[in-house]
Amino acid sequence: MKPAHAEQPLNAPMPARVLVVDDEPRLLTSLCSLLRSQEYSVTEAADGHGACQLIDSQTFDLAMLDLRMPGIDGFDVMRHIASRQPDCGVVVVSGESSFDAVSRALRRGALDYIRKPFDPDELLATVESVLEKRALLRAHEHIRGRLEKSEALHRYIVNSSPDIVFMLDGDGHFCFVNSKVECMLGYHPQELRGRHFRHIIDDRDVARGTYALNAPNISADNPRTLEVRLKTRGSRRANRYFEITAFPIDPETWPQAGADEHGKHREARYYGTARDVTERKEAEAFINFQAYHDLLTRLPNRALFKDRLELAITHARRENQKLAVMFLDLDRFKVINDTLGHAMGDRLLQAVTHRLERCLRKGDTLSRFGGDEFTLLLPSIHSHEDARMIAKKLIKALRNPFQLGDHEVFVGVSIGISIFPEAGENMDHLIQNADIAMYHVKARGKDGYRFYSASMSIDSANRLILERDLRLALEREELRVFYQPQVCAATNQVVGLEALVRWQHPVRGLLYPRDFLPLAEETRLITQVSEWVMNQAFQDVGHWIRSGQQDLRLAVNLSPIQVEHPKFVETLMKQLRASHFPPRNLEIEITENLIMNDLEQISQKLRELADFGIRIAIDDFGTGYSSLNYIHRLPIHTLKVDQSFVKAIRSGEEGACIVNAIIAMAHGLRLEIIAEGVETTEQLTYLKRLGCHQIQGFIHGAAQPAEAIENCLGHLPAKAAML
């Protein structure tokens, strides 16, 4: 047998705790024994005062009270129980049977009323029934509490979610949306309930959102995921990108309905989340922009340009239309970049881009191809004239100076144009041929445009071979310096020699400057060629000067690339010192266009040279700007009349009038004047009559190598060599 005090199993329910209160000891003992026989935990109280003390110190599930007790009666005990232990049930066991007493007890919260004397079975049945009801009530309260906590937890989780959580009815109206929508988009959740989801979707994405919701294959296992832009409340906040994931809801598993602001019930049919992916989309857009744009100018880069050109060619071929590709190369950009630094060069590229963009039509694509090179796509043109008009606008747009800090600089642009389909039927050919046409512009003086023609490709092939040979010529010393005399018109004495370069090609024979100098300019070999020519001329003419021809002047043509270089003056002076050539015997020849391209910088360099005693001559005068302003401001000593005007010296021709004006102007400014290309006695006589100081041309002999010039000078008296 188990001992009387044996413990109950851990999972056994605790016996109900019953307080029995009665002032009749016999009845109290009888009732307590009956209840204990049913294994209730019974506590007895002989009066109301003792009952109240027990209620203050212990917890009970049920109190069985007698109403009529001295001092504190049963009604007072019921009141005390209600204030201290409201969960404790009360059953009245009393001899008072009046309606008023029963009614009063029930109003005070008694669950049942048993009259004395009681039937034991009836009493036990009542106790059991009341305890079961109390247990059910407590269980219900416990479950309700747990549900409230669970609901609060889920509400907290949903509202604390980093995403917008929503539910829609079958038509797409909001049944529920969490509070995250307010901080992300500015809408109050209650404001959206009952409204259609299109209310917050960007108009451009409404169709996609509607289609996704109605897709036939959407299911719980195959939710619909899409990215859309959602509107933010108010115009000051930009729309944001969201990744929407939506699941259909089975009505059998979600029978609840939500009511909108009009009280209409809407059954939820879709559950979903909206995650803000704006930062990711912006990062993707930036990465994509970097991949297809030049970050300095914000223009499309080479890859994007080729993509658009490929599409434009496909469209033009299908519609039987023309399109144009332009290749643009800035003139003098490298000099400005080297002189002012890369930061200023970058600012110049941005300023150039801004001007070029203002010349374009809607649908044109301007790209930065690399360095100072740009490409331009003109789709759907009607004729060459359309491209010609745009090219002229681009050239004109860059004519005005650019202000870079304290510096005013000038750039031009050389433009090559290829037209589809004549100049190429695919992307590579169009770009390549536009590039070839651009180099022909460079070779003819820059700052212009040319359309590609088939003959240019032949020249291009020859140029590749010629470029290779020219590089070898510099290594093998195949270049030669020839000298053409400059003769005093009054005395017929040789006063100067112009150094002219020739190339003794091993296969092609003797090549003249027109055959290879444009290529040298294009390939940047002109600097090496010019330096070699000057070094050789300094040696030859310096030897003649030291041999007795102290006043003999050497005239050399300088390339724009040389003069524009920031260290031009320093480099030239080093050459003079290295060869011991006297600066006063040197005259450099530059063109008007070179001066006007950057008047401020060139003026400074010319003044520095003049301070060293070097003379300055303007070559081909009359073919460029011919501005009296710059002639007056610069340290210029000599004007050389271009041979095209000299050839036109015939009675009544315009060229003669120009020669008259140039010589008269030179006399007025006290400048020396040299006429180039004089070939006939008629020209010589005319020039002498006008007072031209010096003559240069075939009438006094062609350019000759140093040996021939030395032989002539050797038979003449010093300081007055006669040809």
From TrEMBL:
It comes from Marinobacter lipolyticus SM19. CDD domains: EAL (cd01948), GGDEF (cd01949), PAS (cd00130), REC_YesN-like (cd17536). The keyword Glycoprotein does not apply. Residues 150-205 form the PAS domain. GO terms for biological process: cellular response to nitric oxide; phosphorelay signal transduction system. It catalyses: 3',3'-c-di-GMP + H2O = 5'-phosphoguanylyl(3'->5')guanosine + H(+). It holds the Pfam family Response_reg. Keywords: c-di-GMP, Kinase, Phosphoprotein, Transferase. Its cofactor is Mg(2+). InterPro entries: Biofilm_reg_signaling (IPR052155), CheY-like_superfamily (IPR011006), EAL_dom (IPR001633), EAL_sf (IPR035919), GGDEF_dom (IPR000160), Nucleotide_cyclase (IPR029787), PAS (IPR000014), PAS-like_dom_sf (IPR035965). Residues 321-454 form the GGDEF domain. This is cyclic-guanylate-specific phosphodiesterase. The keyword Disulfide bond does not apply. Residues 463-717 form the EAL domain. Residues 17-131 form the Response regulatory domain. Its EC number is 3.1.4.52. The modification 4-aspartylphosphate is found at residue 66. One of its GO terms (molecular function) is kinase activity. It comes from the Bacteria. The lineage of its organism: Bacteria, Pseudomonadati, Pseudomonadota, Gammaproteobacteria, Pseudomonadales.
